[in-house]
Specification:
three-stranded mixed beta sheet; Butyryl-CoA Dehydrogenase, subunit A, domain 3; 11 helices; alpha+beta; oxidoreductase; glutaryl-CoA dehydrogenase (ETF); 3 domains
């Protein structure tokens, strides 16, 4: 028994031949390079670093950026790539997001010409890994209250900086060749580039994780870190700097979550067609069909939403509240889909032989980072009422 096409709305007809080709290329990579080993990587809690250069060769690192060795692809193409990679695992898509949407975007948008030339070509190739150090132990959803501080070291144009503070949940920090660090100064928030090996920097991977296990997140301490004037990102001043990068990451998440949801749905559908219970396939029971239909409806809606956001982004008209709507809805629905998919798998669903519970656990992290449900709810609430309710 086989399943019919799940693209009931024929969403593929909304994609160009070039977009479909890019999607297939990333889908093939995910099937061949990620899916065969992801259960083991997740169980062992490792991220295979050799994937960095392979993803660079695939052309998905900083793929929305122009010049400096970056692929220069469209927002929709980046979204399609994010969806296919997260169908493999949220941790793999997170690597691409941290590298491209956060670290590379910060340098590309706010860096000097020298900084761009030094870092972006190697980062696009996966030869140098970057990280984005914003979140702190007591400043997650409220980055304006960050305690990490950079003090001027000297006077005049040649003055350097001394950096002190602590960051938490910083993806890739322990393997990064360059850190994009956001710190408070006497002149507001600024961004700094901190190369690997700089004295006074300690990055410690967080091991006790029930989610995103095939990924790297760290605690980072900056203790009297001395930086030259060339470390400053000259174009970034205030929270607009990091928020610009966060919106890039949030956009990719709206697509990626649908990849995890689709993979969970496909696992449940395949299992229900083959698993006999009370003399017939699970898929033949009304309750199972209701679950499958509810999953598919939300996947089709969420993918259409992501595609609409992509078209807006490519047109240069997308707004932050639209990205918040996409991130809030699609991650929330993806978690429900993954959990319902697990229920169809029964007891077998709690093993690493099947993907839905792994996706559900990962999506708890995706739901939290780059703005929690509550933060995006308040962003939307402020938009529709004109009243801020964050405080």
């Amino acid at each position: 028994m086989t399943a019919a096409s799940s693209d009931i709305l024929d969403l593929d007809s909304l994609l160009s031949a070039e977009e479909l080709e890019l999607r297939q290329k990333v889908r093939d990579f995910t099937r061949q390079r990620i899916k065969p080993d992801i259960a083991r990587w997740y169980e062992e809690g490792v991220f295979p670093l050799e994937l960095a250069t392979e993803l660079g060769e695939l052309g998905v690192l900083g793929m929305h950026l122009e010049g400096y060795g970056c692929p220069g692809r469209s927002a929709v193409e980046y979204g399609l790539a994010a969806m296919e990679l997260e169908a493999g695992d949220s941790g793999i898509r997170t690597f691409v997001s941290v590298q491209g949407s956060l670290a590379m975007t910060a340098i590309h948008t706010w860096g000097s010409e020298e900084q761009k030339q030094e870092w972006l070509p190697r980062m696009a190739a996966g030869e140098v890994i970057g990280c984005f150090a914003l979140t702190e132990p007591t400043a997650g959803s409220d980055p304006a209250s960050m305690a990490t501080y950079a003090t001027k070291d000297g006077s005049g144009d040649d003055a350097g900086w001394v950096l002190n503070g602590t960051k938490r949940w910083i993806g890739l920090a322990s393997v990064a060749g360059v850190m994009v660090v956001w710190a408070m100064t006497d002149d507001g928030v600024h961004g700094f580039l901190v190369p690997a090996g700089t004295p006074g920097v300690t990055a410690t991977p967080i091991q006790q994780k029930l989610s995103m296990r095939a990924s790297i997140q760290c605690d980072v301490v900056f203790d009297g870190v001395r930086l030259g004037p060339e470390a400053l990102l000259p174009g970034a001043r205030g929270l607009r700097g990091p928020f610009t990068c966060l919106n890039e990451a949030r956009y990719g998440i709206a697509w990626g979550a649908m990849g995890a949801a689709r993979d969970s749905y496909e696992a449940a559908l395949e299992y229900s067609l083959g698993r006999l219970q009370f003399g017939k396939p699970l898929a033949g029971y009304q309750l199972t069909q209701q679950k499958l239909v509810d999953m598919l409806v939300e996947i089709q809606k969420g993918t259409l939403l992501a595609l609409h956001l992509g078209r807006l982004k490519d047109a240069g008209t997308i707004r932050p509240e639209q990205i918040s709507l996409g991130k809030l809805n699609n991650v929330r629905e993806a978690i429900r889909i993954a959990r319902d998919a697990r229920s169809i798998l029964g007891g077998n669903g709690i093993t690493t032989d099947y993907s839905p519970l792994r996706h559900a656990a990962n999506l708890e992290s995706v739901r939290t980072y780059e703005g929690t449900d509550e933060v995006h709810t308040l962003v939307l609430g402020r938009h529709i009422t004109g009243l801020g309710a964050f405080h």
